Amino acid sequence: MDGPKGWKGEERAIRVPVGAVTLDGDLSAPERARGVVLFAHGSGSSRLSPRNRYVARLLNEAKLATVLLDLLTPDEEAIDLRTAHLRFDIGLLSERLVAATDWLMQRAETRHLPVGYFGASTGAGAALVAAAERPEAVRAVVSRGGRPDMAGPALPRVQAPTLLIIGEADFLVLRLNQEAFAKLTCEKRLVIVPGATHLFEEPGALDEVARLAREWFERYLALAEARVTRPSAP
C-alpha cells in the first residue's frame, strides 16, 4: 500500500538500544515537526505493516514525525512465530516502548517534541501501559483495532488523551474496548467504524482510521508543542 500523495519526506533506518538488545526501526522526521508518533505494532506484525506505514505517511504530511519500531528482535520474532508468546507479553513490550521514548527524548531532533503512541492489536495495550509510565512525555494515544484491556490496572493511570478506534464487525474486540474505555479516566473517545472488521480491509475503512488518528494527534500534540514553545509572559 502506497502512502498518501504529496509526501516528499525521507525515511531512515534507526537502531534503538534497549537493555541487552537493540531494536530496528524507521524514522521519518519532516521539517518543523510538531510532534513524534511512536508506533507499537500488534501481534504477529512488524514495522513493515502496510497499514501502519500508510497511517504514518499521513501523519508525516501533517508535520508529525513517526517512528515505526520492531518491539522484538529478529531472534525473538523467530521464537514468537513458533510460540505466539512474546507478542502477548505486555510487560516486555511496554518496557521497550518506554525505553524507546526515553531514547527519543535524548536525540537532538526529537527531544523537544511531544510524543504520541499509535498502537494496534496487543501493541495498544503496551502503549497504554507505557503512557502511564511516562505521563510527562506522552501526550496522546491512538488505538487501531487494539487490545486496551491488556493494559489492565494501568488504565486508570493513563493521563494522555486516548482515542480507541474499532471496527463495527470486530465483535469481540469491540466489547473488550468498551470495557477498557469505561476504566480510562483521561480525556477519551471511542469511535466505531461502520462495517469494518479487525484489519479495516473494507473500502475506505483504513482511510477513516488514518483521518481520525491524524486529527487526534494534530489536536493534542500540536497543543502540547505550543505549550512548550510559547514564550513566557513578561
What would your notes on this structure say?
The protein has 234 residues and is an alpha/beta fold. The protein has a single domain (11-228), classed as Rossmann fold, CATH 3.40.50. The chain is built from six helices and eight strands. The chain has helices at 50-61, 74-83, 90-104, 122-133, 171-183, 205-229; strands spanning 11-18, 21-28, 36-40, 65-69, 115-120, 138-144, 162-167, 188-193. Strands 1-2-4-3-5-6-7-8 form an eight-stranded mixed beta sheet, sandwiched between helices. A hairpin with a 2-residue loop joins strand 1 (11-18) and strand 2 (21-28). The longest helix is centred in the C-terminal third of the chain and has 25 residues, at 205-229. It is globular.
Write down the Rg: 16 Å
**What is the chains' assembly state?**
single chain
Q: Might you state the CATH topology name? A: Rossmann fold
The helix/strand class is alpha/beta
Helix and strand run: EEEHEHHEHEEHEH
If you average the pLDDT, what whole number results? Answer: 88
Strand order of the largest sheet: 1-2-4-3-5-6-7-8
Q: How large is the share of residues in beta strands?
A: 15-25%
- CATH architecture annotation: 3-Layer(aba) Sandwich
Helix content: 25-40%
What is the CATH C level class, in words? Alpha Beta
Question: Which residues sit in consecutive blocks of at least 5 with pLDDT less than 50?
Answer: 1-8, 229-234
C-alpha geometry: globular
Whole-number total of structural domains: 1
The number of E-state strands comes to 8
Largest sheet entry: 8 strands, mixed
**CATH homologous superfamily grouping:** Alpha/Beta hydrolase fold, catalytic domain
Q: N-to-C terminal Cα separation, in Å?
A: 50 Å
Q: Tally the helices: what do you get?
A: 6
